[in-house]
Amino acid sequence: MSTPPSARVDERIVAGQAALTPAERRVAEVVLDNPEGVAFGTVAEVARQAGTSGPSVVRFANRLGYDGFVGLQAAIRTEVGQRLRPATERIRERPVHNLVSRSLAVELENVHRTLEAVDDDQFRTAVGLLASRSHPVRLVSGDPTQGLALVMATAIRTLRPDVELLGGTEVQVARDLAHLAPDTVLVAIDLRRYERWVVDTVTTAREGGARIVAITDSALSPLAADADATFLVTAESTGPFDSQVGTLALVNALVAGVSARLRRPATDRVDRVEAAWRTKGALLDP
Q1: Has this prediction a pTM greater than 0.85?
Q2: C or N terminus of the chain, fewer CB within 10 Å?
């Protein structure tokens, strides 16, 4: 595996995921889902959680470039404080002395790591799909990121037609999926722990021929499987809930890309919207 010695555990997993055996992939999922348990557990405990054997755990560690399980543990222990953890754990932590300064540092890191992780080819693919007016665009999101999905849908809808945010009851979602055109682009946004209905919606859409743009937090996320473009976000927070700042920065970058691609028709469309607002007196200008 050709990853730099300084690469994080998750980066090594992403780089080598294609070579992982099914058993090693299950170990990788345990490492990503429960790094604390791996950092302070035993080979036998990790093997049990992954439903595999101790030797498979050791082979997985060696495949990532570590000196066996002990080397993997040492690497995870240095990172474990920066990993995403459930809100039920974070809310019990003692608040830091200066939350504003700490939040500034954390959010800058979220934006930096999220945008730094963007692959240029994946970005061009996503922007091309979202900007193509021959492709209807639909968005689906887990509950915590619903606001970001609405922001993205509203912005792209201003730039081009046929953009909708899916949601509501199971009946509504099933109806929308039944009418989904095969050339639809589905943007899926969700972080661990993934909502089943979002994953099921993506699976159904993919099976129907839709193109998938996944915005999630792990290359092993069920949203990322066979996606046409995948973006991994960092969502560390000083509080009990995942930060949305890095994800919003990514959404803004994608919208900017679509706007640049659709410069002339988007300009005309935005002008018409602005004119309609002024005619209706919808906005209170200063």
Answers
A1: no
A2: C
